[in-house]
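Exercise (ungraded).
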Amino acid sequence: MTVDDQKLLAYLDGQLPDTEMDAIANLAERDPEVMSRLAEYQDMTKYLRDRPVTEAALQNLHRVHTDVLKVESTLPRTPTVGTKGQMRNRRLVLVLLSLLALGAIALAILYQPTPSDESSPEILYAAYFDPAEISFATRDRQTDEELLDAAEMFNNGQYNQVITLLEGRVEPKARYALGISLLDQGRTIQARQVFDELRRDQTIYSDDVYWYTGLSHLRDGNTLQAITAFQLIDRSSNKKRAAESILEKLSD
Amino acid sequence: MNPSGYLKPFRTFDAEPPDLTQKSGLVSQLDLNQRLRSGDPELLRGLYTSVLPSVKSWIQSNSGTTEDALDIFQDSIEALIRKAVASGIGHDSNIEALLTQICKNKWIDKIRKKKTEDKVRSENPLRYEDDYSSEEHLIAIEEEELRQRSLHTSFRRLSSTCQQLLEMVMTGQDVKSIVKKLGMSSPNTMYRRKHACMESWRTYLNDVRIGS
């Protein structure tokens, strides 16, 4: 007997009827593979439950470490002894280093500061990639089981499985969901190809397509292309506000 | 040239090694795990006072700087804390000796990364050579660190909604409030989504493990 992960997770949540709970417990005793999957899920659960405790302890460590660093910075370094010639050389090195430092400061003033980690493209991508749920409405008579399954998986965040179901589909919404799923899986070039096709076909997803094209460039670390895509989003689009927020962060 | 043909052996401590015939004088073993789990500042400060100086001197004697020593020391205490939270540290371990050995191994690993493959091979036997503490504990701590890093890395690959949902569920937040906060239609949707997120996480976790 095989058992899928959904059932194992429902078992761990205690959401199955008693008979099924017993069946899975028995199966796990007999089948090491099932037991191993259960153990893995329990391990993941434990990691998340422990996290607040670990984080609090690490914050204390950080505070103590910072105090130690302050003390360390006040400690005198062991002086090194050298000949007069060596001392002269050292002074020369110090002067050169000071000049270099001054040059670096001047450059820093002349040029834009580099973006902080918080506004790095990859982090912005992670912060803003959060697709809305989709549905393939039943009023569309073409709707079939495959699309319904794809929508369910898409809404559950199982993007790798969505790709399998939707590759080769021609419906604009299916292509749209496919593009987002490819993007989530890091297949950015293919995702952009899908988005380009949708834009060329002038579907209703044009603005969303600019949005996700921008995100795909962020994921690749290409800030300039991302900015271009975000700027193309129409003012009336519901993505405009988010795009403006990203543009603002990118300009920081 | 030393027998390995490439590397000078690491210098050992000038100072006397910690006394392993006694349990740590710094803390009672009974509450050691509890104090590490809570990140007890008194315990942490005590460790910095009693162990850092010898670690610093050893790292400086082995091509490192004070800053290197401080970084390694912080990482090592973090590893101890993670192990204490996850499954506890063995009651027969001497905390100072264990911490010292973790620091040394971390520094050796760091140096090893900088060297060529040949040099790495010649350096391998140096790990654990100054075995002041139980090798079993050391391995358990290193494994726990690796396990936690894989869990952390794979978890961070999930979408922000998934991360938020799992954190809320695991920290025991009320189902109704989670459904409301995340704008879901029903508790059933939430459980379905949670299960999907856990499945994705497990897939990523296996990817990370294969990758490492």
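Further reading is listed at the end of the chapter. For now, observe: Chain A touches chain B at residues 5-6, 9-10, 13, 15, 37, 40-41, 43-54, 56-61, 63-65, 67-69, 72, 126-127, 129-130, 153, 155-158, 160, 184 (CB under 8 Å). The radius of gyration of chain A is 28 Å.
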